[in-house]
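Hi U.,

Before I forget, here's the chain from the pilot set. I'm dumping it here mostly so it's searchable later in email.
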Amino acid sequence: NFNTRNIVNPNTFLELPFSMINTEISEIDENSISLVDILSIKRGVECGKKDKTISQKLGDYPLLRGQDVSIYASLFSDFFIQFDKKDTKKFKPLSLYQKNKILIRRVGNKLITTFDETKSIVLNTLYCANSIDDNFKEKYIVALLNSKIISFFFKKTFVLTDKLFPYVRKS
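Structure:
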C-alpha cells in the first residue's frame, strides 16, 4: 500500500554491527593512493601567532593562520609577517608560499582544506601541499579531501581521542 508511511527509527542505524564500518574502512584503505605519493606536504612558518615577526601593520607578506582557513575558503585577517630567509629554523624557502597551493588545517577533528591563490605565507598550523603527480590537479584533490566519504574515512581512521587539540598528522 503506497499510502502507508513507514518511519524508521534513526537509532536503528546506530545498532548496525561495527564490523560493517570496519569493512568499508579497510576497503577504502586498500584501494587508495597515499597522499604522500601525489603531494609534497610541508608545514608553514615555525612560530606561534604572537611571534615578534607577526603584526597587523602592513609588512613584508600577508599571513594566513589555521583559524583563517575553512572548507574551500580562506579569509585574510590583516596579519603580516616579516620574512627572514636567513632564519632557516623558522622559515621555509619563500618559493613554498609564492605559488598556488593546497592548505590543510593542522588542528581540528576533521579535514579542512582549501586552494590558495593568494601566495600568502602560512603559519605551522597549516600544511602547504602541492601536487607532484600531473594526474592529480590541486583543485581536484581539495574537492576529494573535503568530500563526505574522505571525511568519514579520516574520522574513523585518524582522529585520536584528543578532543581539545586534535591534530591532522602527516604520516
